[in-house]
Amino acid sequence: MKLISAFILFLLPTSAIAGNTLIAPMINGLGVCESAINKGISDSNEALSYCESINETSASLIEKKLSLFGNQKSIDGKFQVGYVLSFPLLSYVDMKPNGDFKINKKNISYRLKLLKDSKLPVVLYFFSNHFSVSQNSHIEDMIAKLDSRSLMKLSDGTVPVDKYFASRIYPWSINSNQSLIDKVRKSTLTEILTQICEMSSSDKNKIWSVTTLGEVHYTFPNFFSGMGYKEKMKLTDYSMDSVERFRVYLIDKYKTINKLNDKLNSNFNSFDEIIPPSKDIMSDHLNNFFEHLNYESSGKLTLYGWADLGKNKSSKIKIYVDGTDVGYAEIGLNRMDVYQAIPTLETSDVGYRYYLDFRNMSHGIHSVDIVHEDSGELTLLKHLDISVMDRQQNTPKPVGKPVQFPVENKIRFWHDYPESLIAVYYNPLSEEFYNFRKNEVASEIYDYADIIRSSCIGKEKVFSHQIAPVLNGDWNEEKLAVEDSLKINDHYNIGFNAYGSSFYSDYTFDWLKKSKIDRYGIPEAHPMVNNAGIIKKAFLRHHDNGAVFVVPYYIDITPDSFEEDRNHAKFKIELDNKEYNSDVYFNAIYQIMNDN
């Protein structure tokens, strides 16, 4: 593909302006410079050490790579190309065995030199969540060993350290002020901001936006594939710090134990007796009912699956309970697992979901029917018998009748969860624990966002970098507990990651409208679809809906001689990478930047 020389003409200092959306790819290889490559170095850590020793950054490599997208400003004036300058916070820490630490100011200064060396606009990514970033996870291991308060725990006291691709996963405590991880991250962040604010105005003006921390959420065993409903519900955090904060949360809300007992229909003598629920009444011995926890214990049963509804806008899915229409299921949610298994579906926006609120439903076996509606014609997709149980586990009896519609046999569909005859128990303490965890996640991001916006970087440029299970039809929102962090607030602008149809589906844009989010960022995006037209249309819709920036994930500036994680490399946006339709993604961005 011919390089567009006009790219160079637009390499001028800039800042975000209304009506302009920055396309800023995530970069792999920020620590690699041209001299290291010319010297024959093929190890990322060795390259970083060498480049830092000669004070040379990767600016020229980044600009050459981004020039492959053609114009730096799109012909229609709606888009501009930049890049993500990431700061892995734990990479700038020198730590001693006794827990004393010092921030490596020189290394931070070297990374910031990249901001000076390139005239391109940047999204700064202050990165420190559960993914390991230090060489051989050295710093992460030290923090984990030095301070137990820094880690979340499962109910059995174990710490779910895991792996995701080549990275180790550390379940750092959420909203645990004064833990070692909290002190280290805040000290590093403060030093980075101090150095940024000492830079010239022309360099600071290159900062388009800032995202903070990365994905913040609770975790669980089998991190790579455990976001759904396959295994027994195990989640974090049951550390003593978290338990104490849960009790304080209840005290602040209810004031007295009597008011809490009235709400729960319980008989606790004090808040000190309360332990977050962690046992499943169907398989574990409970000392009292309020220990019960599973996928439904907070009072809502998730009905989900997928259906190929095609392009017929009148085609919907509705839910009947005991023969009564109770409303429509959400449709058009992301199901990448289905799309990858059945590429003929053409898109991954085939998921459906309905939250059945059974908190006030009567004890008994209820009929739940999932029905396809098309231009007034109703056909049955799936019938379920749902046993709503009481605390005494009395034998339930049928209380309702199913619908009498013909069985649907024209569309492809599958109902994933739940199976018929599932027994559900509502534990109001489980609901409170879920609400508490949602509040904790939001508070964690508030805390760090406030540090950033109190610097020379104002609130308008501060965004979250959050996972969005609401957009994915088979993800368990309660495990992650991020719902509150995706709501408009006074601390940061909403930033959410978008993979698969989460980037292009009508559902995503409807969610933005419903949530009244009209200014936002997408800190990670890969549509993973074999249709450049769909991708281009989505970019334009995001621009028109208020997207300040979109971060394609990802481009690589290292040569082939450098080692890479082959599974992770499937996301690499290049002309010759057909994995996850990354080549189609490249072409779509090129067309956006260069077509009228």
Please tell me about this protein's structure.
There is one protein chain. The protein has 596 residues and is α/β, with parallel strands linked by helices. It folds into two domains: 6-92 and 104-131 and 190-216 and 443-594, TIM Barrel, CATH 3.20.20; 300-424, no CATH class. Helix content is 28%, strand content 20%. The chain is built from 16 helices and 25 strands. The strands form seven sheets. Strands 1, 3, 21, 22, 23 and 24 form a six-stranded parallel β-sheet that branches. A five-stranded mixed β-sheet has the order 13-12-16-17-19, with no helix packed on it. A hairpin with a 2-residue loop joins strand 12 and strand 13 (324-328). Helix 5 crosses helix 7 (180-197) and helix 15 packs across helix 16. The model is unreliable at 1-18 (pLDDT under 50).
CATH architecture of the largest domain: Alpha-Beta Barrel
Count of individual helical segments: 16
Rough outline = globular
Low-confidence stretches: 1-18
Major sheet attributes: 6 strands, parallel
Helix content: 25-40%
Tell me, rounded to a whole number, the average pLDDT.
Answer: 94
Describe the structure concisely.
The protein has 16 helices and 25 strands.
Q: What does the secondary structure layout of this molecule look like, with pairings?
A:
Elements: H1 6-9, E1 21-23, E2 27-28, H2 34-38, H3 44-53, H4 59-66, E3 79-81, E4 83-88, E5 93-95, E6 101-103, H5 105-117, E7 122-127, H6 138-146, E8 162-164, E9 167-169, H7 180-197, H8 201-204, E10 207-213, H9 240-254, H10 257-264, E11 300-307, E12 315-321, E13 324-328, E14 330-333, H11 336-341, E15 351-357, E16 364-374, E17 377-388, E18 413-417, E19 423-424, H12 428-453, E20 462-464, H13 477-480, E21 494-495, E22 498-499, H14 506-514, E23 520-526, H15 532-545, E24 547-552, E25 555-556, H16 582-594
Parallel strand pairs: 1-3, 1-24, 2-25, 4-7, 7-10, 10-20, 17-19, 21-23, 22-23, 23-24
Antiparallel strand pairs: 5-6, 8-9, 11-15, 11-18, 12-13, 12-16, 14-15, 16-17
Helix pairs in contact: 5-7, 15-16
